[in-house]
Design goal:
The protein is α+β, with helices and mostly antiparallel strands and 485 residues long. Helix content is 55%, strand content 16%.
Length: 485
């Protein structure tokens, strides 16, 4: 027979369980705080990326560290289910739910204002939806201005939502589906605004799960970007090494990716919806302190979606996936197993998509040398030449690359612009893998593996094409022998 409420017997057990849950929450919060600036930073906004960079293979991504992080995060998902049930049983938490639900009528106003602001800023910057999506089509840019005006009028919000969907579709046409999947949440936002004008309650309420689903997908997709294109994010860590908090950059990057993947999965299954929205909002503010105005502009619609989640919770018409099972044990199994399933599905989907994007990028170049785009300097009067190419040991097992050239100018400020002879940057390779870009005479290689390490630098124009002479890429190389530790 169960003991009576208030009996002294079970008190220590409840206290112990509460302490354990608080410990889990504390550890999760510390993990978020440590990886926050990089975990939810949009790498493409700050890194000199391009799709001529070959993505890692699945075998290269699945390292022992990856497998450990998968196991640990799956356990965390199960523990968060128990935390969610514990919170639901507290009076203050239920009171907070009621207080927020009473203000859910403000949700649409928040989303309208945020999207109007983002569209106007993008219009003024000749971009589409995000700071790095600079459009070649003035009509598409001006469409954002029209849609922003529509969102100012309550009766035209549905039409404005249709406009957001049209802009998203046009962006797929211009920038490619693989790239625009980073911004799938705009699809959810457009649908949310469109159906908000519907007189059918079920259709109107469908906008909220669409927001949850598309935003969760975007976070997971961006997490896998850090795993398959580590050089893009490692470039940020190289520019701001304090972000890694003294941890090995590769390990820190993988941890940041799993934070992003985990947050996206929680949004997908509807677990800890309101607390999660509050946590992600705080994390976004943390990234703003590090990366500044671009981060504010790019994350404004995400902040608006999170406010919608705070005010609405899981909603009233559509049950979140985690609510399919009533028993705690089934919910724990549901969260852990589906997390592993999502890890596997996205691993395969992202790998296939990234390698397809790489092949498409190569195929669209008309002039190629060894599979890469080329800029021919064979008949040029002046050809760049390496006069110094050396690797210097900075600390034990940590190395810097020093380069000096003639007839060459580093022009990082022109990144992405058409190539001009004898200026640009270098691509740095270690053992055949690109690890970053050279924008000056020095490059921090970091730790190198014991044994022979082949270091290669190619000279590339602002649009990343290789400079070639007589069919040979202008490059220099050396081998560094690192003794066993």
């Amino acid at each position: 027979m169960a003991p009576l409420a208030g009996a002294p017997g079970p008190a220590p057990r409840r206290a112990s369980r509460t302490f354990g849950q608080r410990l889990v929450l504390l550890l999760a919060g510390c993990g978020l705080a440590l990886t926050a600036p990089l975990a939810l930073a949009h790498v493409k906004w700050f890194s000199d990326f391009d799709y001529h960079t070959p993505p890692l293979s699945v075998a290269a991504v699945i390292t022992p560290t990856f497998l450990v992080l998968v196991a640990v995060s799956a356990v965390v998902m199960a523990l968060l289910v128990m935390l969610d049930q514990r919170l639901d049983g507290t009076g203050w938490y239920r009171h907070l739910h009621r207080w927020l639900s009473a203000r859910q009528d403000y949700s649409l106003l928040v989303m309208r204002g945020a999207m109007a602001a983002v569209l106007l800023i993008s219009w003024a910057s000749d971009a589409v939806l995000a700071p790095e999506l600079t459009s070649r089509f003035p009509t598409l840019v001006w469409l954002q201005f029209v849609v922003a005006v529509l969102l100012l009028f309550p009766r035209l919000v549905g039409l404005g939502g249709a406009g957001v969907l049209a802009i998203f579709a046009a962006s797929v046409f211009e920038f490619g589906l693989f790239h625009i999947l980073d911004y799938l949440h705009y699809l959810g936002i457009g649908f949310y605004l469109l159906v908000s004008a519907s007189r059918h309650q079920k259709l109107c309420n469908a906008g909220l799960p669409a927001l949850y689903g598309t935003m969760g997908f975007s976070l997971i997709w961006l997490g896998y970007e850090k795993l398959f294109y580590p050089s893009w994010a490692l470039y940020l860590l190289d520019q701001s090494p304090q972000l890694a908090l003294g941890l090995p950059p590769q390990f820190f990057l993988q941890g940041a990716a799993f934070v992003e993947i985990g947050l996206g999965f929680l949004l997908l299954i509807g677990l800890l919806g309101r607390p999660l929205a509050a946590v992600i909002t705080l994390v976004f503010f943390t990234t703003t302190l590090v990366f500044g105005k671009i981060e504010v502009i790019g994350h404004t619609p995400l902040h608006a979606a999170l406010v919608v989640f705070l005010l609405n919770g899981a909603g009233t018409l559509y049950r979140p996936p985690i609510a399919i099972h009533r028993r705690l044990s089934w919910r724990v199994a549901f969260a852990a197993l589906n997390y592993l399933l999502i890890i596997a599905l996205f691993l395969g989907a992202y790998s296939w998509s990234a390698h397809r994007q790489y092949q498409d990028a190569i195929a669209t170049d008309r002039s190629l040398v060894h599979g890469r785009a080329a800029f021919d300097l064979t008949d040029a009067e002046r050809v760049p030449e390496f006069i110094r190419f050396e690797v210097v040991e900075e600390l034990p097992a940590s190395y810097d690359l020093h380069v000096e050239l003639t007839d060459w100018t580093f022009t990082p400020e022109k990144s992405g612009q058409p190539t001009v002879a004898n200026e640009g940057h270098g691509h740095v390779f270690v053992n055949g893998r690109q690890v970053g870009r050279l924008y000056g005479p020095w490059f921090h290689l970091g730790e190198l593996a014991p044994g022979d390490n082949r270091i290669v630098v190619t000279l590339n124009g602002s649009d990343h094409r290789d400079f070639v002479v007589d069919g040979q890429v202008l490059a220099a190389e050396t081998t560094v022998v690192v003794p066993p530790s």
